[in-house]
From TrEMBL:
GO terms for molecular function: 4 iron, 4 sulfur cluster binding; catalytic activity; cobalamin binding; metal ion binding. One of its GO terms (cellular component) is cytosol. It comes from the Bacteria. InterPro entries: BchE-like, Cobalamin-bd, Cobalamin-bd_sf, DUF4080, Elp3/MiaA/NifB-like_rSAM, Methyltransferase_Class_B, rSAM, rSAM_horseshoe. Keywords: Iron, Iron-sulfur, Metal-binding, S-adenosyl-L-methionine. Residues 171-408 form the Radical SAM core domain. Residues 1-134 form the B12-binding domain. This is Fe-S oxidoreductase. The lineage of its organism: Bacteria, Bacillati, Bacillota, Clostridia, Eubacteriales. Its cofactor is [4Fe-4S] cluster.
Length: 591
């Protein structure tokens, strides 16, 4: 029997861990098992064509809320021309309301409910022997015109008894690779499916070492732990991170290696901070789910936490240089517009590297799904079941938050507007007010309907501030702050990449006139030739004059945006150095 395992990943760079577990679990019995990975953005006809040409007897799909629609579209293309192929679905999206799902999707032959290791193998054996799979626990299947469900409890497997998912040599260069060292979660968040399972299981650290070593050998440089709460057990988590450090040190490009962990902020303590101070900078990146700072909401979703108490660790980790992603969820019960505004501002003020604003997904099997009526939760009937309205947050308000999220990603999370945002935010009561008003300005201008090149975003924020000044909406914008706003935009503009042309709106008329003079050009040339750059930028010694000019820009500013002392108000010159897609800004101090 020929088996094909398929995943439609969110992006091309992603990999699917579940398929690799299943492949290694069944390959002894079925050596012809194949894996095919695609992206949800790929052409579905091409995907269906390649699956058809594989001539498999059983095709298994790994399903999630973000790929189920595309997965079913592929199966519907295949079913009429593959009447003898059995289609099996597994994953969190099909593990609840299984009978209803099979009733609605006649093309699917069976569902694997919950963890698929061992179960999928037993199902295949039953089909190969042409016997009814009634004795296989944790499955739903089609028997003639009827639908059968075996809901017998399956004893959770120890992670140390699972097969080694990366036994096959694969090239993971440029890919995002997933690993797990725990299953389960110590918390009981009612919006999360982890709340449906009890306890946490741990992988022996030395088993992880073997896995991580294999991934690095095969080119993986970005590894993400799928552990729901990586720091659920401090001793385990520290040992895993020790192994990451030890194994990474064997590679010459160790500075390119990064692991991403989801941790709980309220489980940090002084020992964690001491550990991070001595950890290689850039090797670990953390994602922390704040979700909300509104206490009544946190109580409803069974995740009470005191952000005010543990945010000090966020500030400390930032000072150490650990990249931090903090998450918020809009549309949680009992959190209205004002409450969410407070949550947003609370999290924004600690200045994470990324503030990921998500929207509640009312998942099948979750506690909030069962209690949705009591909190007035209206949500999309199809995956990903995104919240549409709550008893205290209208649909119109949620649409506004979606627009705000788009602006947040373009400007804050891109990391390209650091100095601009710092200055512009001074003009608004809170960060939330700026992003909301800016998003509604975009909406009014009908800019969301187009794809804008990166540098067009500078013009958009300039237009927003200019319009506010002209119509007198924001009285805090005055002609004193205007030059510094322009300088901040210009500074970020040069940090984006070496520009060939500078838009007029980034320069005042006096500067434009001076730049045309020979004296101005001589100053720029003198700064470029100054020997002061050699200890700061050692690469200059290896470049001829043409290369150096091509990789640098010399720019004058009315104020120094990188300083916060009295000298910040003085005009200054900066040299921007561009190499390997990165820009470095160096103030010219003279020699």
């Amino acid at each position: 029997m020929r088996i094909l395992l398929v995943a439609l990943n969110a992006k091309y760079i992603h990999t699917n861990l579940a398929l690799r577990y299943l492949r290694e679990d069944i390959c002894t019995e079925y050596p012809n098992v194949l894996i095919k990975e695609y992206s949800i953005n790929d052409n579905l006809d091409r995907i269906a064509g390649e699956i058809f040409e594989a001539k498999a007897d059983v095709v298994g799909f790994s399903c999630y809320i973000w790929n189920l629609n595309e997965t079913m579209a592929v199966i519907r293309r295949l079913h009429p021309i593959c009447p003898n192929v059995r289609f099996v679905l597994g994953g969190p999206e099909v593990s609840f309301e299984a009978e209803e799902f099979l009733t609605e999707h006649s093309e699917v032959d069976a569902l694997v409910i919950g963890e698929g290791e061992r179960i999928f193998l037993e199902l295949l054996k039953a089909w190969q022997k042409n016997i009814d799979p009634s004795n296989v626990p944790g499955i739903a299947w089609r028997r003639g015109e009827g639908i059968m469900l075996n809901s017998s409890q399956v004893k959770p497997l120890s992670l140390n008894d699972l097969p080694f998912p990366y036994a096959k040599d694969e090239d993971f260069t440029g890919r995002l690779v997933y690993v797990e060292t725990t299953r389960g979660c110590p918390f009981n968040c009612q919006y999360c499916l982890s709340s449906t399972f009890q306890g946490v299981r741990f992988l022996e650290p030395e088993n992880f070492r073997r896995m991580f070593r294999q991934l690095l050998k095969n080119g993986a440089r970005t590894v993400k732990f799928v552990d729901r709460t990586f720091n659920a057990n401090k001793r385990h988590a520290l040992k895993i991170l020790d192994i990451v450090r030890e194994e990474s040190a064997f590679f010459a490009d160790s500075e390119e290696i990064r692991v991403h962990c989801e941790m709980a902020g309220d489980l940090f303590d002084a020992e964690w901070m001491d550990y991070f101070r001595n950890y290689p900078q850039g090797l670990v990146q953390l994602e922390i789910g704040v979700q909300s700072t509104h206490e009544p909401t946190l109580k409803i979703v069974s995740r009470p936490q005191a952000f005010e108490d543990w945010k000090k660790y966020i500030i400390e980790m930032k000072s150490i240089g650990i990249p931090l992603h903090l998450d918020l969820i809009a549309g949680l019960p009992a959190e209205n517009w004002i409450d969410f505004r407070t949550s947003f501002n609370d999290v924004y003020k600690v200045e994470p590297d990324m503030l990921q604003l998500g929207f509640l997904k009312v998942l099948k099997g979750s506690g909030l799904r069962r209690q949705s009526g009591g909190y007035g939760l209206l949500f999309m009937p199809d995956p990903p079941y995104t919240i549409l309205e709550t008893a205290v947050l209208s649909h119109n308000e949620l649409l506004q938050l979606h627009r705000l999220e788009s602006i947040l990603d373009k400007y804050y999370n891109s990391g390209k507007f650091r100095y601009t945002l710092r200055e512009v935010l001074k003009l608004f009561p809170t960060p939330f007010d700026f992003y909301h008003e800016f998003a509604e300005f975009w909406h009014k201008q009908e800019w969301f309907g187009r794809q804008w090149q990166g540098k067009a975003l500078f013009e958009k924020i300039w237009e927003f501030i200019r319009c506010q000044l002209e119509i007198g909406v924001n009285e805090r914008i005055d002609f004193i702050s205007w030059p510094k706003i322009r300088d901040s935009l210009k500074f970020d503009f040069y940090l984006w990449e070496r520009p060939s042309v500078i838009p007029d709106y980034l320069q005042d008329e006096d500067t434009l006139e001076m730049e045309k003079t020979d004296q101005w050009k001589r100053i720029q040339e003198t700064i470029r030739k100054d020997a002061c750059w050699e200890p700061i930028i050692p690469e200059v010694k290896k470049m001829d004059r043409r290369q150096w000019n091509r990789n640098t820009a010399v720019v004058h500013f009315m104020s120094d945006l990188q300083r916060d002392d009295e000298a910040a108000a003085e005009s200054c010159w900066y040299l921007f150095y561009y190499q390997h897609g990165k820009a470095t800004a160096c103030r010219y101090e003279g020699s």
